[in-house]
Amino acid sequence: MNKIWLSLLFGVCIISAINAQQIAIKSNLVYDATASINIGAEYAINKRISVDLSGNYNGWDVGDKSWKHWMIQPEARYWLFESFNGHFFGVHAMYADYDISRLDFSLADFKRKYQYVGTAYGGGVSYGYSLYVTPRVNIEFTAGIGYLNFEYDKTLIKSQQLEGRFTKSYFGPTKLGISIIYIIK
Would the pTM of this model clear 0.85, i.e. be above it? Predict the structure, then answer.
């Protein structure tokens, strides 16, 4: 069901892009710091409303540790002045698949001796600010809070024994970004 909603939102983004006044591509430096490949696109539907779709991927291990995942995060934004300029408020959703092992991850209460394979989905609200640098380049700061649901298989790494299937609810930070934006007119 969640995949259907995400597909519909993605379709709206594409249709909106055809009539958009402005289009921007972006990269989130916070995700870059975690070695996650990421890209985003944002489309201004009108002067004050835009739709953002970002995604990231991390498919590698570091030593014996693993934080493999892919994630997609759509967001609708309302700009207080105009799209890509100044303050905005947003509503975002998120879906991710992950494989985490040998890491302590407090967000989901994951412990280092286990492997966690599963999905996370949810949504929240955000606030941000887009700082003008040049006519085509901005720096965007954004943060959000919301709800996430984690569904996962928990396996003891040493014995490879499945401990069970679990669900965990989380409320707290769901979005953080410092992004370089390139505006295409």
Answer: no
pLDDT tens-digit series, residues 157-175: 888 899 999 999 999 999 9
Report the C-alpha gap between 1 and 39 in whole angstroms.
25
pLDDT category of residue 104 using cuts at 50, 70 and 90? low
Look at residue 6 and tell me whether its pLDDT is greater than 80. Answer: no
| Domain at 2-184: CATH architecture | Beta Barrel (2.40)
Inter-residue contact 100 to 119 (CB < 8 Å): no
What are the helix and strand counts (H, E) for the chain? 2, 9
Domain range summary for the chain, segments of one domain joined by +: 2-184
Contact criterion met (CB below 8 Å) for 147 and 167 = no
Q: What pLDDT score does 20 carry?
A: 45
CA distances from 110 to 69, 164, 170 (A): 15, 14, 13
pLDDT for residue 4: 55
Q: What is the DSSP letter of 83?
A: T
Would you give the distance in Å from CA 75 to the centre of its chain? Answer: 9
The structure tokens listed for 135 are 């006519």
Give me the long-range contacts of 1-4 (CB less than 8 A, separation at least 24): 2/95, 2/121, 3/95
Provide the 3-class DSSP secondary structure of residue 149. strand
